[in-house]
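Weekly sync, protein design subgroup
Attendees: M.S., D.O., the rotation student, P.L. (late)

Item 1: inverse folding check
M.S. brought a backbone from last month's batch and wanted to see whether the design step gives back something sensible before we order anything. D.O. pointed out we never logged the input encoding, so this time it goes straight into the notes. Structure tokens as presented (106 positions):
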């Protein structure tokens, strides 16, 4: 929200697009572990090819077979995605934080 507000208030931000990445790079398994930890649970990431993992989740009724968006989202999350925060830092004063999920906020 602060970055959006800064875009409105700063002329250098007009007609530009900014990536707003988190403050650290995490693998999918570390991302899942942090979320599980925030819920008071443990996770056991299994190194399965994505297609097999999604089929298993569908058969276990953990992901509906028709949930195409969930499948596409999982595919995106399985790929490394690195974004440059430098432009947002210099123009907007963007200061990304470390990923620290808190289940009390959900």
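Designed sequence read out in the meeting:
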């Amino acid at each position: 929200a602060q970055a959006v507000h800064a875009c409105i208030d700063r002329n250098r931000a007009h007609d530009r697009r900014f990536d707003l990445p988190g403050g650290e790079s995490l693998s999918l398994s570390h991302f899942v572990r942090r979320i599980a930890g925030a819920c008071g649970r443990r996770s056991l990431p299994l190194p399965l090819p994505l297609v097999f993992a999604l089929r298993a989740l569908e058969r276990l009724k953990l992901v509906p077979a028709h949930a195409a968006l969930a499948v596409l989202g999982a595919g995106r999350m399985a790929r490394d995605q690195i974004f440059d925060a430098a432009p947002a830092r210099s123009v907007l004063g963007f200061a990304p934080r470390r990923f620290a999920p808190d289940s009390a906020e959900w």
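Discussion: Residues 28-38 form the longest helix (11 residues). The mean pLDDT is 84.
Action: P.L. to compare against the previous round before Friday.
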